[in-house]
C-alpha cells in the first residue's frame, strides 16, 4: 500500500549538499524527509574527495621515501602493497561513514528513505512505496562522470572515480583522459606510487586557472615524470592484449599511446535524467538544472543545490545548503556569491584560488595591484625543502583583498586565510596588524602586506614628520 508523507522539506540525495540541508532543518525541529538511492555520503565520501585524498596521502609517503636522501636520510625505495593501500582507503571511508549514516540522521530526527525519487507532479515525489508531498523540495542529486563520445570507448574497459579506488592491483601504465582536477590529482598520485602515467587533454590542462600558476603545477608534475599531451584530439580508443591503445593527433601529427589501464576524468554530468523534472515544471538542460542566484528552480517550491545545480566542490555544496536553509526556514533572502568559494586542486604542488583572478581583475577592477611573492622568500619553505611556489594577491582600493591564488606546497591550507579575507572584505592592514607565528608558510600573507605598504616608507611627507619628531629626544 502506498504511504503518504507530508513533511515541510523533502531532500533528494544524501551527499554533502542534501545531508547539510537535512541536518540543518532537523536541528531546528522542522519535519524533513531525505531520499537517497545509493550509499549515504554521496560522491565525496564514497568515490571522490575522501578516497582521492587518502590515495594522495599514500603517494606522499612513497615520495618522501624517494627524496629522503636529500635530507641526509638513507632509505630503500618504497615497495607498494596495493592490497593494503586499497584497504586503507576503504577503511578511511568506513571511519567517516557513521557521520553520514542512516542511523545518525534518523537519530537527528530525519526520516530517511532508501529509494530512488521521481517527481510525479509539481509538488509530489514518488520513492518506492511512498508519495511525498512537501512544502519545499531540495534537489541534491549530484553528478556522475561524463563519458566523452570517443569511438571505441564504450567497448573498451575503463576506470572512472567510481571504480579507481577499489582496484586490487596497481596499474603498470595509467592513461588518463582529462587534465582537470580529477585527472591531474590521480595522475600525480599514481606517478608517486611508481606507475607510468600519461595524461591527454583536448585543450590546455588546468584550463580556466591562472596560466602562470597552472604552469608551476604542470611543470612540477612533468618533473616527477607525468607525460602530458595537451591540445590533443583522441580519435579512437581500443582494447589490446596488454591493455588499451589511444589513437591521437596534435599539432605535430597523429600518434598512438599504449597503456595498461585507462582512467576517464573528462568532467561531470548532473544526475537528473530519471528525476521526472518535466512533470514538476523544472527547467533543465543536460549540463545542469536551471537555478537563479538564490538556487530556486523554475518551480518555486523546488531548490537545486550542489553538483546538480552546477556546483563543483563539497564545500560549495554545503554553502548552497546553508543558503537554501536560510530561505526555507527563516524566510530570509539569500544569493550565492561564487567569488567567496575557494577552489583547491590537490596535486603536488597544489593550486588554490579565491576571489578575483589577475585576469578578471583587469576588467572588473581596473587599477587593482597584483602582489607577487615567491615561496623562496619564506623561511619555512626553505627549511622544508619545498619546490617552486608563487602567491599572487589581487588588491583593490585602500588595500582591499579582492582575490588570491597560490601554486605550491600547502596552498590548500594557506588559501583559508585569504578566503576569510575575501568573504569579510578585509584589507591588507588586517594582515599587517595580526602576529603570524614564525616559521610558517602562512607568513607569506604578512610579507604581502609589508610589500604593499613598504612604498610608504619612502613617502617624503612621512620622512619629514619623522625628522621633526627626532628633535624631541
Ligand atoms: C575524484 C573526485 C575528487 C574530488 N575531490 C574533491 C575535493 O577534494 N574537494 C572538494 O571540495 N570537492 C571534491 N570533489 C567534488 C565533490 O565530490 C562534489 O562536489 C560533491 O560530492 C557534490 O556533492 P552533492 O551532494 O552535490 O552530490 P553527491 O555527493 O553526488 O550526492 C548526490 C546523491 O544523490 C543521490 N541521488 C541521485 N539521484 C537520486 C534520486 N533520483 N533519488 C534518490 N537519490 C538520488 C546519489 O546516490 C548521491 O548519493 C571531487 C570529486 C571527484 C569525482
Ligand atoms: N580538489 C577538488 O576540489 C576537486 C578534485 C577533483 C575533482 N573536483 C571536481 O570534480 C569535477 C570534475 O573534475 P574533472 O577533472 O573530471 O573535470 P573538469 O571538467 O574540470 O576537467 C575535465 C578535463 O577533461 C578534458 N576533456 C574533456 N573531454 C575530453 C576528451 N574527449 N579528450 C581529452 N580531454 C577531454 C577537458 O578539456 C578538461 O580539461 C570538477 O567540478 C572539479 O571541481 C574537485
What ligands can be seen in this structure? Answer: flavin-adenine dinucleotide, nicotinamide-adenine-dinucleotide
**Tally of distinct domains:** 3
Largest sheet: 5 strands, parallel
Mean pLDDT: 96
CATH homology-level superfamily of the largest domain: FAD/NAD(P)-binding domain
Point out poorly predicted stretches. Answer: none
Fraction of residues in helix? 25-40%
What does this protein structure show overall?
The protein folds into three domains: 3-40 and 101-145 and 269-336, FAD/NAD(P)-binding domain, CATH 3.50.50.60; 164-266, FAD/NAD(P)-binding domain (3-Layer(bba) Sandwich); 342-455, FAD/NAD-linked reductase, C-terminal dimerisation domain (Enolase-like, domain 1, 2-Layer Sandwich). The chain contains 14 helices and 25 strands. α3 (49-67) packs parallel to α6. The termini are far apart. By secondary structure, the protein is α/β, with parallel strands linked by helices. The mean pLDDT is 96. A five-stranded parallel β-sheet has the order 4-3-2-8-20. Nicotinamide-adenine-dinucleotide binds at residues 148, 150, 177-183, 185, 200-203, 207, 234, 265-268, 312-313, 344-346.
Amino acid at each position: 500500500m502506498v504511504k503518504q508523507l507530508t513533511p515541510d522539506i523533502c531532500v533528494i540525495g544524501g551527499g554533502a549538499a542534501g545531508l547539510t540541508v537535512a541536518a540543518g532543518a532537523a536541528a531546528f525541529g522542522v519535519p524533513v524527509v531525505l531520499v537517497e538511492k545509493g550509499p549515504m555520503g554521496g560522491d565525496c565520501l564514497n568515490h571522490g574527495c575522501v578516497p582521492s585524498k587518502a590515495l594522495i596521502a599514500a603517494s606522499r609517503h612513497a615520495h618522501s621515501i624517494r627524496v629522503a636522501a636529500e635530507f641526509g636520510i638513507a632509505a630503500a625505495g618504497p615497495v607498494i602493497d596495493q592490497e593494503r593501500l586499497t584497504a586503507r582507503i576503504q577503511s578511511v571511508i568506513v571511519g567517516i561513514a557513521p557521520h553520514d549514516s542512516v542511523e545518525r540522521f534518523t537519530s537527528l530526527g530525519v526520516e530517511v528513505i532508501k529509494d530512488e525519487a521521481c517527481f510525479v507532479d509539481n509538488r509530489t515525489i514518488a520513492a518506492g512505496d511512498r508519495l511525498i508531498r512537501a512544502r519545499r523540495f531540495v534537489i541534491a542529486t549530484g553528478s556522475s562522470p561524463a563519458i566523452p563520445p570517443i569511438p571505441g570507448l564504450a567497448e573498451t574497459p575503463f576506470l572512472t572515480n567510481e571504480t579507481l579506488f577499489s582496484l586490487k592491483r596497481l596499474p603498470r601504465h595509467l592513461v588518463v583522459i582529462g587534465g582537470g582536477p580529477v585527472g591531474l590529482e590521480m595522475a600525480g598520485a599514481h606517478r608517486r606510487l611508481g606507475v607510468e602515467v600519461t595524461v591527454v587533454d583536448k585543450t590546455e590542462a588546468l584550463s580556466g586557472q591562472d596560466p602562470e600558476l597552472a604552469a608551476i603545477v604542470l611543470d612540477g608534475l612533468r618533473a616527477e615524470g607525468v607525460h602530458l599531451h595537451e591540445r590533443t584530439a583522441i580519435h579512437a580508443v581500443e582494447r589490446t592484449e596488454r591493455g588499451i591503445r589511444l589513437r591521437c593527433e596534435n599539432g605535430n601529427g597523429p600518434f598512438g599511446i599504449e597503456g595498461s589501464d585507462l582512467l576517464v576524468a573528462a568532467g561531470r554530468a548532473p544526475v537528473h535524467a530519471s528525476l521526472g523534472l518535466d512533470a514538476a515544471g523544472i527547467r533543465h538542460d543536460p549540463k545542469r538544472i536551471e537555478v537563479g542566484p538564490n538556487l530556486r528552480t523554475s518551480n518555486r517550491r523546488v531548490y537545486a543545490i550542489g553538483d546538480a545545480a552546477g556546483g563543483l566542490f563539497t564545500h560549495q555544496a554545503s554553502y548552497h545548503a546553508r543558503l537554501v536553509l536560510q530561505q526555507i526556514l527563516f524566510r530570509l533572502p539569500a544569493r550565492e556569491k561564487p567569488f567567496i568559494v575557494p577552489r583547491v586542486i590537490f596535486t603536488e604542488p597544489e593550486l588554490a584560488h579565491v576571489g578575483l583572478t589577475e585576469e578578471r581583475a583587469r576588467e572588473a577592477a581596473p587599477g587593482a595591484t597584483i602582489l607577487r611573492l615567491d615561496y623562496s622568500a619564506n623561511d619555512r619553505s626553505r627549511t622544508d625543502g619545498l619546490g617552486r611556489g608563487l602567491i599572487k594577491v589581487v588588491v583593490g582600493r585602500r588595500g582591499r583583498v579582492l582575490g588570491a591564488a597560490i601554486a605550491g606546497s600547502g596552498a590548500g591550507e594557506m588559501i583559508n586565510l585569504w578566503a576569510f579575507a575575501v568573504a569579510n572584505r578585509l584589507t591588507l592592514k588586517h594582515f599587517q596588524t595580526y602576529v603570524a607565528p614564525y616559521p610558517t608558510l602562512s607568513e607569506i600573507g604578512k610579507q604581502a602586506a609589508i610589500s604593499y605598504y613598504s612604498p610608504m616608507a619612502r613617502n617624503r611627507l612621512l620622512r619629514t614628520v619623522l625628522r621633526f619628531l627626532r628633535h624631541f629626544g
